[in-house]
Amino acid sequence: MKKLLLSFGAVVLLAAGAQAQVSYGLKAGVNLGKYSNLGDDQKNNTSFHVTGFADLPVATNFSIQPGVSLQGKGTKYYENYEGMAEAEFARNVMSVEIPVNAVYWIPAGSGSVFLGAGPYIGFNVSGKDKLKGNLGDYAGETDWDLEFSGDDKDMNVIDAGANFMAGYKLANGFLLNAGYNLGLTQLAPNADETVSNRVWSFGVGFQF
């Protein structure tokens, strides 16, 4: 965690020294989330993301992008027991994140290809588990809110890791982008193995 915080500090100081014109942007799109170390039975949990960011040039074709992001994450399972019972479980978690990405721009056509990576720190603010199925004497649907504090909490509050992104910026500022969110912190209290986020994202945006 100390290394992550030091990385944040370094990129912020670098960005603060930038003299070129700062621009701003907004991105939104679809998230496809799973968790690490929970087996191959997981399905992609579909959610969304909305991110506001600043682009601070620090060198030719190179910039730092700090931002604030609302990220939907989680996982989903579906099980069918030889037609005798079936169940679908989904966990949906909403997180507020602060990413700081280093971005390299490659002029291409009338716009630019961009490649980026950097650390993020997130705070899980709400979540819900949903269970729907036909399991012996039980048939129906139920849900319950997740707890992020206390001795019986369902998930840890802090989520930190690394972002990777790529896309294309048109000359008018329109963005096409894709990304991968690699969680590096433990989300599951008292688990034997580290359970962390694995999220693909696809979206559009505008930088002005």
Automatic annotation (TrEMBL):
InterPro entries registered for this protein in UniProt: Beta-barrel_OMP_2
Keyword Signal carried by entry: yes
The entry's keywords: Signal
Lineage of source species: Bacteria, Pseudomonadati, Bacteroidota, Sphingobacteriia, Sphingobacteriales
Organism, scientific name: Sphingobacterium alkalisoli
Leader peptide range in chain numbering: 1-20
The protein's name in its UniProt record: PorT family protein
Domain Outer membrane protein beta-barrel: 19-187
